[in-house]
Request: fold
Amino acid sequence: MKELADLIDKGASRALEVCNTCHTCDLVCPQGADPYELVLERWWERRQEGLPTTARLVTPSEPCNIWSSLKAVMPEEELALSRSWDDFSPCEEICLTGFYTNVVPYLMQAKVLAGLPKIVGSEALFGCAGDIYKTGRFDMVEQIARRLERVFGDMGVKRVICSMSAEGMVLKDILPRRFGAGFGCEITTLDEWLLERLRSGEVSPVRELGMRVTVHDNCLSKLEGGRLQEINREIVTRTGCEILEMRHHGERSLCCGFGAAAARFRVMDIMSSGYRRLKEMEETGADAAVIYCPACLFILSVIKEMAGSRMPFYHPVELVEMAAGGQPVRRHEERAWDIMAVISNHLVKFALFPSHRRMFQPASIPPEPESLPELPAWDRRRMKALAFLYHGPVVQNRVTRRALSLGFKAVVGIYGAVRERRLGIRPR
Reply:
């Protein structure tokens, strides 16, 4: 209660430094005080003057954002797939890929998804504002909500199936409730669509996978009483897998690491938080982890590769594809090293160019979709060079990978211990 009082009375609290934007505080607060909303309000007050430079990675209007950067190293078939989703012609029913499905577009090639309506997923939509909402920049969220209203209205959309369940929750709950958005269409998620097809027999497993798996729940799955968490567990069990729950799951599920950056925009906060989650996965003794949020999937894949973990990760669509007798396109490990090239390019620019260290004011977002900025030529060259290095034999050998793993664990361990001591957090 002291931290809540500090937030209200002083606009200051330890929560503003350690919040992982996971929604758990709202769910467990005995007073029903919605402390998470208060944290975001305080961040909004602080950040109207600008965002820290690391936020450029998740701000689509900024050069060197994740999506523009990845296009420099993605296979041509994935680029062609993404381009095919850049279609805003009239259509009453669409599948909206969302921002982070576009980081792992190969997931949408599964044969069990053949019955989906037209896929629309240009990054020009700026996603559904879920990640920007976490930063507290409410002005940008409002602008994105207006853009989505306009696009859905112009297309005549009556039903949206969100491939990323977190964005489905933003469309259904956060944007209407907090920002008065009215989309005039039914909003559902790929998880719900896929489970319905399994229940109806339209997708029929031909074999049981027989794996013991643990399920990572994303932050926004805690809305609606955790309904999406149960939907994904039913999908998993229908593929013949046994679920071993982590110590923190359901409404108390820990952050994948992505939301840990919202407080201070530090890469090390992502790594520290994500590694904590990875260790919980491994402690279950499961054969694999199931991660149904594309953003969580790529962040945790980066952590896994850095830590040298051998636990495989699966998206539920991949499990269903395998149970139905198919072979999913699996590139999680390769994409993790691509993301590391994106992060490395950002860190190189931060170290070499003072202008890249300054806070920035994001550009205003007009209601009409517009293309992402092209990656500058020198950044494109660096991205290609870094990706070549990370995918090549210099890095992908037993000795280097072992050294990276030991170094990563040591640095993350020291960083976490120092931070907890400074904040007065008792060791777990």
